[in-house]
Amino acid sequence: MKKITTKLSLMEFSQELNESGALNANVTGQSQISELLPEDTHEEDNYEEKLLQITRVTKVVKGGKRTSFRVILVVGDARQQVGIGVGHGEDVNAATRKAISNGTKTLINIPLTLKKSIPHTISFSYGAARIMLKPASEGAGIIAGGAIRSVLELSGLKNIVAKQRGSNSILNNAKATILALNALNKKVSQGIAQNINRSLFYERVLVKSIKPILFV
């Protein structure tokens, strides 16, 4: 049994979407995935989704070739919750629905400071992907790219610097970012459990004057 994974080009991606009728993608590849969510989910949760990658997987079996799709996306409320969803299906529609369902089940809470940043610097690795998240001063914005930027935008962070090392895998870098934010949340929770005031804790660990650096 042989499995072949290929990334869809923009033209092939548009053709697959038109055939399945699942998504309405524009020229930039941004898709209106939120239309696939039930109406009651929109009203209660108001989650946003960002498509990271769609891959076509061809499995060679005894009877011939079997094609399926894998969808990777970020789900978040742009306030304090974010998660990663991965879905597999025979068409783009089914894979996207599974990815959205998976993403909403794996949401984590992000510890935000008053300046919409993180309390302190943290590094994390997942597989061969290594990332570093660093707090930034107010007005610096999100200095990051790729899958890391998508995760940070939907988490509600506004001022942060991120550095990516190692693997360029979209899924591994996105998961490393989620794990880093989750580890950061655990450290803040431990501080609050020790009767440390949240605002004082933020002011104590937050670097007030950090010059944003654009890593090359």
TrEMBL record:
Coiled-coil zones: none
Originating organism: Spumella sp. Baekdong012001B8
Domain S5 DRBM stretches: 47-110
Family: Belongs to the universal ribosomal protein uS5 family.
Keyword Metal-binding attributed: no
CC terms in the record's Gene Ontology section: plastid; small ribosomal subunit
Gene: rps5
Entry keywords, A to Z: Plastid, Ribonucleoprotein, Ribosomal protein, RNA-binding, rRNA-binding
Record's protein name: Small ribosomal subunit protein uS5c
Location relative to the cell: Plastid
NCBIfam families xref list: rpsE_bact (TIGR01021)
Organism domain of life: Eukaryota
One Pfam family it belongs to: Ribosomal_S5_C
Subunit details: Part of the 30S ribosomal subunit. Contacts protein S4.
Cleavable signal peptide: none
Main location class: plastid
GO terms under biological process: translation
Function: With S4 and S12 plays an important role in translational accuracy.
One Gene Ontology molecular-function label: rRNA binding
